[in-house]
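User: I'm new to structure prediction. If I give you an amino acid sequence, what do you actually give back? Let's try with this one:
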Amino acid sequence: MWILLSIPVINGSIAAILKMKNTAAIFMDDDGNMQNDQERLTTDRQPLLFMCKKPKKWHNNSEKDKKIVNKLTRSAIHSNIKLYEGGDILVKDTIQAIKDTEQKAEALLENAKKEAAEIRENAEKEAAKIENEEIAKARERAENALQEARKAAGQKVEMAKKAADEEASQLRAKAGELEKTAVEGVIRKLL
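Assistant: Good question. You get back a string of structure tokens that encode the predicted 3D arrangement of the chain. For your 191 residues, that looks like this:
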């Protein structure tokens, strides 16, 4: 007689259980038939059954029976293998793990979308800010250029006025001299 324990294969860490006396690994094929195939221990990750041989004098709840089950359980726990009474718990845990992973992925996707929207909004604000700053700088440069042009024009006007004043002074002086000469010429003719 054999005692059955259902254990999922986790990274081939079942060697400690197989080293125990009276222990065998049993696999179920697709048709539900049991097979004892040692090669599948390292290649498959399907749930498998470990069978522990029942002692000849098997009494329910006897100390010896408990020791055998405890030894098998300790070996499984020491090997980081989870024990399950049936496949339904494994399936439920797997489905729950998948659902949890999907929820985490959805949450990550939502966070990524929010971050992308925030980044886009910040980029648009930054672009508008830079545009306004550049417009303000361009206006300032234009005003400075206009003021410099006005200043240069004012200086040219002042220089032109000075030149005109100097020329007018020279013309007045010349006219004054010519006037004197003309007056003297008229006086000479009259005399």
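You can read the tokens as a compact description of the fold. Here is one thing that stands out. The first helix runs from residue 15 to 18.
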